[in-house]
Design a protein that fits this description.
seven-stranded mixed sheet, six-stranded parallel sheet
Length: 327
Amino acid sequence: MKYKAYLVEENDGVYKGSVKEINMPAIEPGNVIIKVHYSSLNYKDALAASGVKGVASFYPFVPGIDVAGEVIESSSDIFKVGDKVIATGYKIGMKVFGGFGELVQLPGEWVVPLPENLTLKDAMSLGTAGLTAGACVKKIINARIPKNMPVIVSGSTGGVGSVAVNLLSKLNYDVHAITGKPEEKDILLKMGAKEVIKRDEYMLDPVKPLDKGIYAGGVDTVGGDILAKMISMISNHGAISCCGNVGGMKFTSSVFPFILRGVSLIGIDSAESELEFKKDIWNLFASDWSLDLDEYTRILSLNEIENEISRILKGKQVGRVVIKHEV
C-alpha cells in the first residue's frame, strides 16, 4: 500500500524534507492503519524535521506527533474499520512514522475514539498543544486556585499558550498573557487575555526569592528565568503547571514560595500521559471546554510544511497550524 508523506532525509549531515510516495508495511498484530485526514505542526515536529538529535530515532523519517483520521485496517480488538480516531504523543513522530503522512500504522492502545461533538479538524486545531494546555489547566483547577486573582500564561502566542489563554478565559479566569510578540497584542486580547505583558518588561527587574503574590496560578510553556519569576509571584496555595523549556532547561528559585506560601509546581508531560487521562481531556474539549479556534488556526497542505517549519523554529508561529491531507 503506497501513500504520500513528508519524508525527511539526511545527506552528509544536511536534513531535507520533501513529499514522496512511500510504502506502508503489512499490518502488525494489535495495530491499526489510519487514513490521516488532519495532523498539526508542533515544535517537536519542527525539531524532527531539522535533524535535531534525540527527537527522531532514525532517518529517513516522517514527523508528525498528531493524527486525526479514520481506521481503514485493523488487527486490534479495540477498533474496527470506519472508526474515527485521534492519536497523539507516545512514540508517534519520534520512533514511528507520524501524521505528516497520509497513512499511519499505530498500536491500538495509542489511539482514542473521536468524541461526539468534536470534528477531526477541530481535534487537530487542538492537537498535542491543546491536549497539553488542557492538562495544564486541569491540574491547576484541581489544585483549587481561586478566581478572585488573575492567572498568568507564558509563551502565550504559541500553540500551548494560545489554547491555555482561550481555555482559561472561557472558564472565567482573568488571564495575564506574557509574550515576546507585542505586535500580537490584539490577537491575545481577542483570545480572552485581560492584560498583555511584554516579556522584556516582565523580565526587566531581576528575579526575587519572593515577589508580590499577585497571581493565583499560571501556565508556563517557556521554562528558564520566566518560570523562576512566575513562581515568585504566585500567591498563597497557588499552582503553576510547567510544560516547556524553550527559555532554558534550568531555572533558579528559592524555597520561599513553596514553604512560605505553599505554592505547587506541577510538571506536565501530555505525550506519555495515560490513555484514560487523554480521553478525559478530549471529552472535556468536546463538551464543557469546547473552543472555537478557527480564527487562530491556519490550514496548510503537505507541500506548504517546509516554510512553516522554519517559522516555528524562529519563534514566529502564532496560534495553531493544521495540516490537511487529501482525502
